[in-house]
Structures
1.
Amino acid sequence: MKTILIFGCGSIGNHMSFASRKLGYKVYITDINEKAMIRMKNEIFPKRYKKWDNKINLISYNNVFDLNIGFDLIIIGTPPSSHLKIFKICKSKLKFKNILIEKPLTIVENKLLNKNLFKKKKYNIYCGYNHSISKSVNFLLRYISKLSKVKYVQVHWKEGWRGIMGAHFWMKNEFSSYLGNIKEGGGSLHEHSHGLHLLFLILKKFQINLEIEKFKSKILYLKKKSKKYDQFSSFVGNKKNIIFKYETDLISEPAEKNILILSENLRIQLIFNYKKNFDAIIINKNNSQKIRLFKKTRSSEFENELKHIINSKNKVNLKSNLGVDNAISVMKIIKKVIKNAKK
Ligand SMILES: NC(=O)c1ccc[n+]([C@@H]2O[C@H](COP(=O)([O-])OP(=O)(O)OC[C@H]3O[C@@H](n4cnc5c(N)ncnc54)[C@H](O)[C@@H]3O)[C@@H](O)[C@H]2O)c1
């Protein structure tokens, strides 16, 4: 039986525990805050999935590093500012084959962020950009590899607080956690970095490396006392005659998460959550339109991600979209967007 250890009993910790149990994995989960463990058992999990699952092993943070188990997967599902610190502790104290660090990999200002930290790899390191391995995105990435004369690529990843706070119903508002503080990994660029990861992967297909390309960016911040976050961020650039544009916000209701690509005689759009439990790809070509639907559920998104990692045939899987190198690039892009917006 596959054995998983999860750090963080918050929103993602609950998703991952449920998805892992559905796949029949043995789950251990811990949190630095004892109250968060109790809340998971008594409130979050029963509210989301009807009742607590007794086979989930809640393990106190003080005891977790004494577990003498070779884990198939460790998941770091804690606030972004703690990800790399926990990763370093796991490296020195635990045995594992794969590690999944949630998105974003860290916060822009983290000095630990350099490739050396991820170098010596006896294990695979992934970052939680689960949308980037979904059926709809896989289809899109395959489809666009065949396109010529692409002239426009646009990604929107826009969602207001209502949906996000719904998944954190025990919090008063965004300032109750890292979400409302850019320094702790909150704000639209960090929180919605799924969209940046997708734009990065798409442009890579056209041999454009967003990490090094020039673009103009705009950020609108919201401030409250000592905290602030980017409630709207965007950038636009042009390389190889392809105009690329990214827009993200923490305002849009309903959420708007989509990709648009235009080539000389074709328009292809991926609309996430086109209707309940479906993504859609809409292709317009020669005055005709085709719509292709991709079924999913919230849990299946995480099950898909877990299977992608656990069933990976390579011992060290460098090719996955979820590979840590892509996530490092996303952090560098976030840093550049913030820096450019100051100019
Ligand atoms: N891939 C996705 O779709 C997805 C969805 C939700 C969240 N996330 C990511 O997961 C991470 C956590 O988000 P969340 O919404 O679950 O946050 P959350 O605030 O709901 O939960 C985080 C938990 O981590 C605990 N924690 C903090 N520091 C810790 C430490 N050092 N060791 C152990 N536990 C610690 C906190 O006590 C808290 O219970 C973020 O990076 C977020 O972006 C990803």
2.
Amino acid sequence: MNNSIYNRLLQKEAKLAVIGLGYVGLPIALEFARKIKVVGFDINQERVNLMKRSIDPSNELEASAFDGCDIEFTANINDMKDVEFFIVAVPTPIDDANLPNLKPLLGASATVGKVLKKGDYVVFESTVYPGCTEEDCIPVLEAESGLKFPQDFKVGYSPERINPGDKEHTLQNVIKVTSGCDSESSEEIAKTYELVVEAGVHRAASIKVAEAAKIIENTQRDVNIALINELSIIFNKLGINTFEVLEAAGTKWNFLKFSPGLVGGHCIGVDPYYLAQKAQEVGYHPEIILSGRRLNDDMGKYVAGEVVKLMMKHSLPVLGSNVLMLGVTFKENCPDIRNTRAIDVYSELKSYNVNLDVYDPWADTNEVRAEFGFDLMSRFKHQRAKLMATWNA
Ligand SMILES: NC(=O)c1ccc[n+]([C@@H]2O[C@H](COP(=O)([O-])OP(=O)(O)OC[C@H]3O[C@@H](n4cnc5c(N)ncnc54)[C@H](O)[C@@H]3O)[C@@H](O)[C@H]2O)c1
């Protein structure tokens, strides 16, 4: 049997590490840990402690997902000294000016660089603009390790398609794009991922192609939702029900089904800014991508404005009125409040001096208080409010 990294992983002679154990990193780490030896590394010791007790801090996986896994959770870099295959899945957020914030990614690259050895593999999964792996991450790996790319170590990129709260499209049953820095690494990386992705992998032609493929998946979605949001504003003015229009148009075979709404979270509302930044760097100002972003980012304000208009139309006093907002997480059936645009609805309504209560059984009260400075309505208070409403009706 040859001594390829894939075979060494399979024979449990080599270890794989996942750096960053969030929505993306933990499921992939556990899936690999059913087949090969895995180290799960995260800088957040509290999260590591929970995972050691078979608790997913992101609330996506049941305790049974940890059963039968050969995995060591750690926040200690020394535990990765004998690892030969690294997967990086740390966040790639934007800053207040909507510019890419590469701090976690470069931090994780520096961590890997400190334990990188000749012959090792590093695969990035974080969503980035085309060129980021080669232009931003590899130099950090080289600087920290003192090794030279590509002769001393191999690099690849494999974007993630996981969808929090979605039990239908899973890591195992959705084709995964993989790539490497040369034909040998491309094959080794593809075969390694095939161990866990039953649907198989698509071998992209290069790292940049794989990076670009991921970023356009989310950009396409963002722009399409922006179009439907714009249509809903027009139809509102025309007194036409947008959902009835979409239902009718949706009967055509090639009409794309998107719904109007708030575009939040750390993917769809963020990733297009990564692509826009790269486009501007090479001298092109993206018109459609950025106008889609602007439109979607303004929807919360628009929704709140429409609520106030409706109240006035029905002779309801706005100032001092009691308003209940249902939902604060960035989407349905998911506890994640990061970059939720529901907060825009909240802030805009608050600016009209209404008494606003927010109820969301998915969101964590402490997280909401820390992030947005208000307390969620308790389940008890919500039930009482519902009762009172029924009583008054
Ligand atoms: N969540 C999704 O639905 C999704 C889907 C596809 C792609 N992605 C992309 O995957 C990447 C990871 O996203 P996520 O949702 O899993 O993030 P997350 O916030 O859920 O988890 C990130 C984890 O990384 C850890 N971390 C941060 N900096 C670190 C460092 N320097 N070293 C080690 N650990 C570090 C954090 O403590 C956290 O546990 C992002 O680029 C994101 O855009 C996410």
